[in-house]
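Support reply, case 0932

Customer input (verbatim):
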Amino acid sequence: MRRVILTSLGAVLLLGATGVFAEPPTAPASVPAVATAPAPNAYESLSPGNKRIAVALFEAQKSSTTADATPLTLDQIAQERRTGKSWGDVFQAMKSQGLIQAESLAQVLGRYNRARHSRS
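Our regenerated output:
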């Protein structure tokens, strides 16, 4: 249990570090109030580490989505990241919409990693 907590904490610290997994924002600093349509292949343009986080968030929706909330696609999640939002901001937005029930992004990543390792 202690190892899982330390691993999750380490993942959060790495994600929060100054630009370890960050990509330079492609949108201007002021994001328009109107949501834009996702760019084609937004997911494919992410780095491998960012793809892992996007998939973890995507899969976390499957067990959490309520009947009135429509799950986001991988491209929609990736587009949120490409607009300059941090993964923490993307997680919080999804949580506030009722798409994810986890308490933290670290919890989402930990569950994803455990599920991935148990399959192999």
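We compared this against your earlier run and they match. Two observations from our side: The radius of gyration is 14 Å. The chain has one domain: 2-14+41-119. Please reopen the case if you see a mismatch on your end.
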